[in-house]
């Protein structure tokens, strides 16, 4: 297993979930008629990051 691959996957998996989490929270806030919350967006981000990073690492370690 090459740890450099995991670092590259981590960098790639950081930006996309951040953008998705902000967009999801904006739509959530609009639908629920509440204000945008950075705390709620960070919870969305943790979920999106876990959904993208953990399977990627598992695939990298399986193929090595």
User: What is the CA–CA distance across the termini?
Assistant: 5 Å
Which band does the percent of strand residues land in? under 5%
* Helix and strand composition category: mainly alpha
- Alpha carbon gyration radius: 15 Å
Beta strands, count: 0
Largest sheet: none
Summarize model confidence as the mean pLDDT. 84
The poorly predicted ranges are none
Q: Report the principal-axis shape.
A: elongated
Give the proportion of residues in helices.
over 70%
- Helix run count: 2
Order of helices and strands: HH
Keywords: Membrane, Transmembrane, Transmembrane helix
Walkthrough of the structure:
- The chain has helices spanning 3-32, 38-63.
- By secondary structure, it is mostly helical.
- The longest helix has 30 residues, at 3-32.
- The chain crosses the membrane at residues 6-29, 41-61.
């Amino acid at each position: 297993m090459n740890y450099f691959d995991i670092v590259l996957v981590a960098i790639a998996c950081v930006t996309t979930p951040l953008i998705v989490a902000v967009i999801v929270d904006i739509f959530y806030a609009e639908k629920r008629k509440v204000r945008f919350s950075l705390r709620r967006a960070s919870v969305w981000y943790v979920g999106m990051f876990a959904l993208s990073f953990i399977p990627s690492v598992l695939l990298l370690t399986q193929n090595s």
